Amino acid sequence: MNAWANIKTIAKRELGAYFTSPLAYVFIVIFLLLCGFFTFMVGGFFERGEASLVRPFFDWHPWFYLFLVPAVGMRLWAEERRVGTLELLLTMPITSWQAIVGKFLASWLFLGLALALTFPVAVTVNYLGHPDNGVILSGYIGSWLMAGAYLAISCITSAMTRTQVVSFIISVVACLFPILAGFPPVVRMLEGWASPWFVDTITSFSVITHFEGFQKGVLDSRDVLFFLSIIGFSLFSILIDVGSSSLGTLKEFSDRITTVRKLTGDEAKDIFVKF
Fold first, then answer.
1. Helix axes 22-37, 2-19, angle to 10 degrees
2. What is the distance between the alpha carbons of residues 259 and 183, in angstroms, rounded to a whole number?
3. What count of other Cβ atoms lies within 10 Å of the Cβ of residue 206?
4. pLDDT averaged over consecutive 10-residue blocks of the chain (275 residues)?
5. What whole-number distance in Å separates Cα of residue 79 and Cα of residue 111?
6. Global pTM?
7. Cα(102)–Cα(5) distance, rounded to whole angstroms?
8. Which end of the chain is more exposed for a tag (fewer CB within 10 A), N or C?
């Protein structure tokens, strides 16, 4: 119970931090503009003549998240390291995994909020025709899970770096592979020279491959497990990285306290200023 309370506190703190800066509003506006433009203009929603969001709307989400999700996740740990508050956070009466889960949930809920604000698209489809809303709901669930997988990968790069820009670039590159692994032109190229089992192995790591089921209204446990596995593995990797770095910092802090006991005046002050 206490662990969940700590996670909620951290998540609330992180979620509030998004809206104290222009980042949240800029992200939401850009995401909504992209969704509207690609759905109705590039995706040819009206020209298709069918009440469906599969092709004109959900097909673009993996590409939107490729750049927008790393922009959200890049600050989670890199900013803490840069300003030196990571050590302070980990010395609070919380465990490392509680901090990691709390931060992740806050960002994932923020992404869910941005995704939920695209509801006018679904309303438009229902106004113009009679779509299968179960398929639309399934697509939204799959999109949110995919965003969580992208975010978890971005959290790893953020935990490994001190600079948000570096974290963003590495995250984009890391998230590009799960897209290209199932991108039709890439798959066709692989089929031209590779054996079928190799192609199937590569495509099995693709977010596009596992997102297709959700777009069709199929909630396959294998697809859900795929996205949750990425999230779980990524958060565990962060726990190892953050835990080891915090132990090193705390040991350094303890050594400096021991040193300060032997010093007085300006010498002791200089020790803590450098720390």
1. 80
2. 58
3. 21
4. 82 87 88 90 77 83 93 82 69 80 93 94 88 91 96 90 87 92 88 86 91 91 95 90 54 46 51 44
5. 19
6. 0.83
7. 10
8. N
